Amino acid sequence: MSNVDTVLANYPEAHQDKLIPILQETQDAEGYLSQEAMHKISEHIGIPSSKVYGVATFYNQFRFKPIGKYNIVICRGTACHVKGSLQVLEAFEDELGIQAGETTEDGLFSIEVVACIGACGLAPVISVAGEIHSEVKPGQVKGIISKTRRKDNANN
User: Fold this and answer.
1) DSSP 103
2) pLDDT per residue over 61-80, tens digit each?
C-alpha cells in the first residue's frame, strides 16, 4: 500500500470538504504532491483532477516537486531582509549550484524561500531540515552545508 493509499484509507467516505486535509497529509507522507497522488485523490473524492490541482496550486503550502533530504528554508520577511537574508540566499544558491525551489542532483539539499519563519528577533533566520539557525551570515553557509553533509555521512 502506498503512502497515498494509506492517507486515503483514513478518509473512507471523503468528499470535497476533506480535500485540503488529504492534500496536507499526502504531502507530509510523500514530501510533495505528485500527479499520480492528485489523480488518486480525485478518484477517491469523486471530483476532477483539474479541481484537485486547482486547489493545490492556489495554496503556496503545497509542493509539486520532491524536496531534498535537507530542505533549507530561508526567511525573506522584513526583519530578515533588512539584516541580509538575500545575501544568505545567494550564498546557498552559489554553494549548492541551485536556485530557490530546486533540489541538488544528489537529492540531498533543496532551497525554499518563505515570507516568514516567525523568529524575527533572530534575523536572518534559516532552517535546515527543521533545525533553526539564527543571525546567519553569508560566510557561515559553507560551514552549515559541510556540517550537514558530515551529519548525513555519519547517519549512513
Assistant:
1) B
2) 898 988 899 999 999 999 99
- Best CA proximity match to 109, nearest among 144, 60, 64: 144
Q: Who's near 20: CB < 8 A, 6+ residues apart?
A: 55, 59
Residue 63 lies in a domain: no
User: Judging by DSSP bridges, how do beta strands 70-75 and 126-128 pair with one another?
Assistant: antiparallel
The dihedral sign for the CA sequence 117, 118, 120, 122: negative
Can you read off the three cell numbers belonging to residue 23? 492534500
What is the average per-residue pLDDT within 26-54?
94
User: How far apart (Å, rounded) are the C-alpha atoms in residues 151 and 156?
Assistant: 9
Number of domains in the chain: 2
Same domain for 17 and 53, yes or no, is: yes
pTM above 0.90, yes or no: no
Please give the residue range of the domain that contains residue 122: 70-155
